[in-house]
Amino acid sequence: DTEVTQTPKHLVMGMTNKKSLKCEQHMGHRAMYWYKQKAKKPPELMFVYSYEKLSINESVPSRFSPECPNSSLLNLHLHALQPEDSALYLCASSPSEGTQYFGPGTRLLVL
Amino acid sequence: SQQGEEDPQALSIQEGENATMNCSYKTSINNLQWYRQNSGRGLVHLILIRSNEREKHSGRLRVTLDTSKKSSSLLITASRAADTASYFCATALPSGGGGNKLTFGTGTQLKVEL
C-alpha cells in the first residue's frame, strides 16, 4: 500500500461546530504532516509528528488540534473555526527525511 | 521566511515543446524537491536532489541545483497535455525530531496545449 488516504474529501462546517479530519498511511512511515493550502498559493506546513510525537507546531492557532493515535493515523480536530480557515488541508507522510507522500486533501469550507 | 520564488508564475506551451521552471531560495538546505499538483488536489513527488548533487534525471525530467546561487531548475522535455498542472519546488531541512520541514516555492502553473 503506497498511498495516503484522507477523509472526508469535502467538509462544510459552521463556526460553532467541532469536526475532525482523518489521515491514514500504511507505508510504515514514522513522520506525518499537516499542511494548509489556500487557493493559488503553495502549501504551508502546520504540524509535524515524528514517532507519534509532535515535533513542529508552526504557530498554528489552538482552534486546530492535531492528534497522532498511532503510527498509521493522524487526526486534525477543528473547533470554532473562522471563515478564513477555509482551505485545502493536506496530509503527508515520509520515512524520516526525504520524499513526502501526500494524500488527496480535504477541502474545508467554514461558513 | 525561507519560501522560494518560482518563475515564471505561469507558462503556456504547445505539446512537444520543452518547459523550464526556475526556483530560488534563501537559506542552506539538505535537499530540494519538486512536486506536481493537479487541480488543487494532492501533490505528487517528482524528483529529489540533494545539496551535494548538481543535476538529476528522471524520465523526461531534468533538475539542476546551484547551491552557490541558491537556485534550481526543472526541465520537462517533450511536454504532453497531461503535464498541465502546477509545479512547486520545496526546500527541505530536518525537523529536529525526525521527518523534514518542507518550505514550498510560489509555484508555476504550466499549461500544455494540443
Describe this structure in a few short sentences.
With 111 residues, chain A is mainly beta. Chain A has strands at 4-7, 10-13, 18-25, 31-37, 44-50, 53-57, 64-70, 73-79, 87-94, 101-102, 106-110.
Order of helices and strands of chain A: EEEEEEEEEEE
Largest interface: A-B, 34 and 28 residues
**DSSP E strands of chain B, number:** 11
> What series of H and E elements makes up the topology of chain B?
EEEEEEEEEEE
Give an overview of the whole structure.
The complex is a heterodimer of chains A (111) and B (114). With 111 residues, chain A is mainly β. Chain A is 0% helix and 58% strand. Chain A is built from no helices and eleven strands. Chain A has strands at 4-7, 10-13, 18-25, 31-37, 44-50, 53-57, 64-70, 73-79, 87-94, 101-102, 106-110. In chain A, strands 2, 4, 5, 6, 9, 10 and 11 form a seven-stranded mixed beta sheet that branches. In chain A, strands 1-3-8-7 form a four-stranded antiparallel beta sheet, with no helix packed on it. Chain A is globular, with a radius of gyration of 13 Å. Chain B is an all-beta fold and 114 residues long. Chain B is built from no helices and eleven strands. Chain B has strands spanning 5-7, 10-14, 19-24, 31-37, 43-50, 55-58, 61-66, 71-76, 85-94, 100-104, 108-113. In chain B, the strands form two sheets. In chain B, strands 2, 4, 5, 9, 10 and 11 form a six-stranded mixed beta sheet that branches. In chain B, strands 1-3-8-7-6 form a five-stranded antiparallel beta sheet, with no helix packed on it. In chain B, a hairpin with a 5-residue loop joins β4 (31-37) and β5 (43-50). The N and C termini of chain B lie far apart (38 Å). Chain A binds chain B through residues 4, 30-33, 37, 39, 41-45, 48-51, 53, 55-56, 88, 90, 92, 94, 96-105, 107, and chain B through 3, 30-31, 33, 35, 40-45, 48, 88, 92, 94-107.
